[in-house]
Amino acid sequence: MEFLRLLRLALEKGSTDVIVTAGSPVFLRVRGELVPEGSPLTPEQVADLVFSLMTERQQARFEEARELDFALGFPGLGRFRFNAYYTRGYPALVARPVPPEPRPLEELGLPENLPTLLAHRAGLLLVAGPAGSGKSTTLAGMVRHINESRAAHIITIEDPIEYLHSPRRGTVSQREVGTDAKSFASALRSALRQSPDVIVIGEVRDGETASTMLVATETGHLVLASLHAHTAPETVDRLLSLFPEEGREKARHSLAQNLLGVLVQQLVPSLSQEGHILAYEMMVASPAVRSLIREGKTHQIRHHMVGEGMATMEETLVRLLRMGKISLEEASLRAPDRRELLWRLNGVRPA
């Protein structure tokens, strides 16, 4: 099949994405740059390809929602994540290779105190960042770490399943929304009756999922979850905004009681042009941070993070700059507070 040849070529070139749209050649994203392959494709060719990769149920969901995430494995090539969508009335597709197994935490460039948080038997650890920032890779690394560290039943709820986990010291039950469960919320409710030690939620999208997630932490489970946000305080606000106003105060107190920490990450282009470098900030739920959440003063969290020596995004970006791994331009674009970045870099706080 021609498409399988393109997937093999993408792997050989180290491509991070394969982009297929009508009226243009297939593009491979290699070291951040788009490289065309072959002749332009017709709408019929793209549609045939997209639907050939889906089951009948997935085709129906795609037609209704006009977009779909799914994953497939190919003998000799490995596993790929696909996002199918419509553009100007025609199907299109982006494919991304998934490594054969999750990478260990120590290879991902994550905070050194993360394993300590993962050793907790109960509580909530949030992973946040923009789309495409590697949140799924980080969650998979966390699952691998727990799976190798202790005998635990880990239940993951994903859309779609990307990395495949094998039993190690513990066992992992992976459930895919749309195939194994109707929704994140229904799968999470069921997970509480499936003897879990750890529950992993691929994305918190609605209030029902958020509410059940807090119940899971209150009943003695370790919960790992991701959502879209750009800073640790914003992550807290984003999660609480999913609750209706009448239930927000109760949720605020539950979150203040059960939160372990918030990891926010983004991928920054490397100066060496060999992929991307992980930048992060790590907020640990200290007594002061818990009090600020409980009192609704999340705007003060950043000040306490700095005062308590927690890693902020600006601090991490400056460290990467001084190591010669990223450019000042990229760091400036990704810093939540550019003035703070320049102050940390130059040692002079601007007026």
Short description:
The protein is an alpha/beta fold. The chain has helices at 2-13, 43-52, 56-65, 114-118, 135-149, 184-191, 207-218, 232-241, 245-258, 287-294, 301-307, 313-322, 328-334, 338-346, and strands spanning 17-20, 26-30, 33-37, 67-74, 78-87, 90-98, 123-128, 153-158, 171-176, 198-201, 222-227, 259-269, 276-284.
Task: Provide keyphrases for this structure.
351 residues, P-loop_NTPase, Rossmann fold, globular, ATP hydrolysis activity, ATP binding, 2 domains, 14 helices, T4SS_GSP_E_ATPase, AAA+_ATPase, alpha/beta, 7-stranded mixed β-sheet, Beta-Lactamase
Task: Please tell me about this protein's structure.
The chain has 351 residues and is an alpha/beta fold. The chain has helices at 2-13, 43-52, 56-65, 114-118, 135-149, 184-191, 207-218, 232-241, 245-258, 287-294, 301-307, 313-322, 328-334, 338-346; strands at residues 17-20, 26-30, 33-37, 67-74, 78-87, 90-98, 123-128, 153-158, 171-176, 198-201, 222-227, 259-269, 276-284. Helix 7 runs parallel beside helix 9 and helix 12 (313-322) crosses helix 14 (338-346). The N and C termini lie far apart (62 Å). The mean pLDDT is 94. GO terms for molecular function: ATP binding; ATP hydrolysis activity. This is PilT/PilU family type 4a pilus ATPase. InterPro entries: AAA+_ATPase, P-loop_NTPase, PilT/PilU, T2SS/T4SS_dom, T4SS_GSP_E_ATPase. Residues 192-206 form the Bacterial type II secretion system protein E domain.
